[in-house]
Amino acid sequence: MRPAAQRPARGSKLVAMIGSLRLHAPTALEYFASLVADDASFAVAEVALSIAQDDYPSLDCQSVLAEIDSLAARLKSRIASDAAPMQRLRLLNRFFFQELGFAGNVNDYYDARNSYLHFVLQSRRGIPITLAVLYVEIATQVGLHASGISFPGHFLVKLRMPQGEVVIDPFTGQSMSREALDALLVPYRRREGLPGNSPVSLALFLQAAAPREIIARMLRNLKEIHRSAEDWVRLHAVTERLVVLLPDAWEERRDRGLAHADLGDDVAAAGDLTLYLENAPDAQDRQAIAERLARLGRTGSSPRLH
Asked: pTM, whole model, 2 decimals?
């Protein structure tokens, strides 16, 4: 996330969009599409907030952003202008994890609302990635160089300090040692068949996550929650956003097609599944998807995009 001085004015894209769409107010998906259209002005907190509008259509993202700004301003007022980065970090951690009481939702980890930033802000409980988005937003506004880390299985935060990088677990508020990070990698190494002494460098997993990657991970979390619950309507809404966010990720087009099929929209399903087969020639599930497409009765030419 960029420092506040470099960030576009809150809601500027929404204002511009309403001006250009004079015939109707933008839908939630159109608003989301406007926010993710270009990487240069990609505002993670606003995009993350907008995800909840499928379930909360009246959610006022600008009011919630103002609330986050207010929290950052409270903390900033307590920090001397010449405070050293490490002092800023200590004050931030005390403010965020102790005074405000943000922590992981250990009692209901798979509640979809843990992925909704406005709910996390109200409840002070969330999952690592939503807590990280809030933490990084406030950290950036008080002059720290913070970024999210898309660590396997557990989203983390890192801060660039004069003494080196500090890695924070936003779920617990704890600073992570190299040994703790290595321990977090054990399930990944087992899943990938890597030995414990594999030369795969820890540094590879500590790269700052791109804004688009952060939102994709949030949406994929929701996708798994809704798929497990067989909530096809919500699953479809999430896949719509993923296709907008990652237009060249053909597996997301496939998943939207399958969601269309589960909702009984065979024509839309066939369109997405055909595009998947055309653009993912090496996919391991090609045969299964081709069979599903055949059952939809659309084995002929590609449908027209709309």
From this structure: 0.88
